[in-house]
Design a protein that fits this description.
alpha/beta; eight-stranded parallel barrel; 10 helices; 16% strand; binds 2-phosphoglycolic acid
Amino acid sequence: MQFFGNFKMNEVTDEYIDKLCENTYEKNVGLALPACYIDRYAKRLKDAGILVGAENLHEKASGAYTGELSGSMLKNVGCDFVLIGHSERRKYYGETNEIVHQKVLAALSSKLKPVICVGESERDYLDGKTLKVVKNQVLKAVKDLYSNEIKGIIIAYEPVWAIGTGRVPKNSEVEAVVSCIKETINKHFDGENVQVLYGGSCNDKNAKELKQIKDLDGFLIGGACMDVAKFNTIIKA
Ligand code: PGA
């Protein structure tokens, strides 16, 4: 299984990196950092077998986009992957399915692995629209990709109502979404298989149970990744 941490807009310290890098990992662990820390910590993380990621990129390659970072800039400071379309980006920065799609293309053309975040709102969940919403987000994000590019992407299923709330869906509910995403991709891309993660209040207490979810390939972890002991407990659970 794979374990991706998302540091969000939180400070990263030398102490945290030292502690995390006391262990070595099998490149099945990745850490998405605030952009200003990537250059400082990329080498140490890679030496410990941890993939390095950014939390966002701009969809254009360069130009007059004050404050933004392109895929090639992130690649040049050592990123292996990039989170795209996290629900906080969709909510606070107006990232639509179309922008997410453009960012996926930008990441691929910079040789960054896109970790594409999808997930339904609480309203959609309560209305029983989860599969419909997620399928639509997935298909729009990967529109126009070549079948051989599917191997290079990851889909992270994160119900918006589960992020940072301590609430998690039932395993059977996540299982239904994982299978829907995999079948959708399989059907549209010549039998290709895509990797699917679960994210949303995954922690050291519930990881063992969540790992029972059929066909799940790993986790995207927010809050709990900022505590090395908790992060390692999730990885080993
Ligand atoms: P959480 O965040 O683990 O704190 O719920 C997950 C995420 O936002 O990716």
